[in-house]
Amino acid sequence: MKIHEYQAKKIFREAGVEVPRGIVADSPRAAGEAFAGLGGPMALVKAQIHAGGRGKGTIAEMPAQRGVQIVRSREEAETAAGNLLGHRLVTIQTGAEGKTVHRVLVEEGCSIAKEFYLGAVVDRGTGGPVLIASPEGGMEIEHVAAAMPDRIFTEPFNSYTGVQPHQIRKLAWRLGLPQSALRAAEQFVQAFSRVFLERDCSLLEINPLALTADDRLLALDAKMSFDDSALFRHADSTELRDLAEEEPAEVRAGEAGLSYVKLDGNIGCLVNGAGLAMSTMDLIKLHGGEPANFLDVGGGANVRQVIEAFHILLGDASVRAVLVNIFGGIMQCTTIADALLEAYRTVHFTVPLVVRLEGTEVEQGRRILAESELNIIAATDLTDAAQKVVAAASRRI
Amino acid sequence: MSILIDRNTRVLCQGITGRAGQFHAKHCREYGTQIVGGVTPGRGGQSVEGVPVFDSVAEAVERTGAEATMIFVPPPFAADAILEAVDAGIPLIVAITEGIPVLDMARIMPEVRRSQSRLIGPNCPGVITAEECKIGIMPGYIHRRGPIGVISRSGTLTYEAVWQLTGVGLGQSTCVGLGGDPIVGTSFVDLLRMFEEDPQTEGILLIGEIGGSAEEDAAAYVSAHVTKAVAAFVAGRTAPPGKRMGHAGAIISGGKGTVAEKVAALESAGIFVAQSPAEMGETMKRALRKKT
Q1: Closest alpha carbon within chain B to A51
Q2: Residue A255: exposure state from Cβ atoms within 10 A (0-12, 13-18, ≥19)
Q3: Are A305 and A313 in contact (CB under 8 A)?
Q4: Is pTM beyond 0.80 here?
Q5: A273: which chain B residues are within 8 Å (Cβ-Cβ)?
Q6: d(CA B59, CA A279)
Q7: ipTM for this prediction
Q8: Which of A2, A279, B34, B273 has CA 20 to 30 A from A190's CA?
């Protein structure tokens, strides 16, 4: 689960990770007041959306307007907020349609001596949390990793005790942090790692991390994601969820216990199991089609879930055909066939439906579908299913 | 022969009084698995489907001589259940539970590694030695006894692979689901070593996914240490970057862990890689033919 920069910074501030002073505003007027309240000669007005690349991102209908703007008066703050609020911001991470800005963060400017990158994730390799740091602050860390891997430093840390001072000193030397900033760095990074552990984060990122002229560290940006599996023990984190930032269909799917990710193609897929669902997408692509989504109904598939899944798939206007690929394991194919029929009758089906069933009692399951006299195209195996659904999708265009 | 488990393996079920635990313990027993006991704290002395329930793993081990356990304990308590099994000295721990907090796993893994226990999973379908012993949630009937070892990061895709193997006349020795979480107890490499040493196994099928570097590590190990035929498939060619595909634990970051990279690494190790998920069985067959 992702949260906004302003929410992450509030958590940082309370935990002792220093951030610039800032005020959230949801109207131009509030942004102007925020500028006045901060009292400085300049401030930043930063669009709050769940996507990176905001500084370089632009407003869809006003390409001159960036997602982060420098303002030097109350009026400029109001104008900047007016240009952002209610408009769609397009960044490298949002896709072409962008994301609507509902809030801006008005933040004081500060004097920066140097910029760094600091992040934390759980590393599959070491099986534990790891700090990632780089002297190349402000750049996309993925680009740094690809172009200058020797400019990225990692430091695994203990998930009980957090990052130790000697580890921070080691990183500080590698980053070229001045000796005079070491004490501040130790406190800052220890607090940062505590947030990661105490909040069950899956990702924590500060980019850029600023070294100020007076040797303090300051989180100029903040990106924070939580481990969904651990949310049960963090009611305070769950409250920070902003449903407006999420794809409505993905939210709806989540409520039904389905895992759904919208893609750009026109063939809807309904599959049981994540690996098989990904393979089904691969297979469609291999046969010249484009998957419209990833949809995993889990190991089993009950009628309620299949109906909901069909509603979600057909709610996507670009879907021209639907492929159901179920490997019935413990769940028998007859049960799945019955669920499919009931769902098919409940949902008004407007596009061709191709079904590939395999597994326990597959013969009876296929017979149920065949005898239903519904307009369901039966497929015998994976390749057959992919060919049939690709053909069905292209016929309708 | 096989790896990890066989018809003599005595198995416990932690969380046997829960819906999933009860259901799957029953199915495992019907497959032929020796389910010798269940564990649910506070429910000792009861029985589920004729299987005695104990209050603790230690007590269950003492009374039944169990050598393996499968865990269906709900996510908030699952990491503790794994440690309890480690503490009781059980050699093989198969954690089926999905949705354990990642940091819980990070916290217990050092102790698991220091112990004599091997952990498979979590968030995995389990382990099955065809026609002998099933510890997990996979459909038993698709498996046939034979010469292929299967190692997979996926669930239902593994069933698909096994189904195809059986369909082309290749039975299996042991099939292992590694689990889809970021931190799992056992890797491709651990099992490649066991399959290489197992006399029944003649070929090995690897099923990978985008994200991480487990497939690259497997490729390096195969090229240095494995003499048997190896085939592979990697799922997620069409997965968009940065999106988590369900609980697949599959995240591509910064162009690392893509299918293209993994396939290149596997092929350079002499592994036959299926281009289509429909060709996993056939690809294994080709790899075997090439070796013999």
Answers
A1: B242
A2: exposed
A3: no
A4: yes
A5: 154-157
A6: 44
A7: 0.89
A8: A2
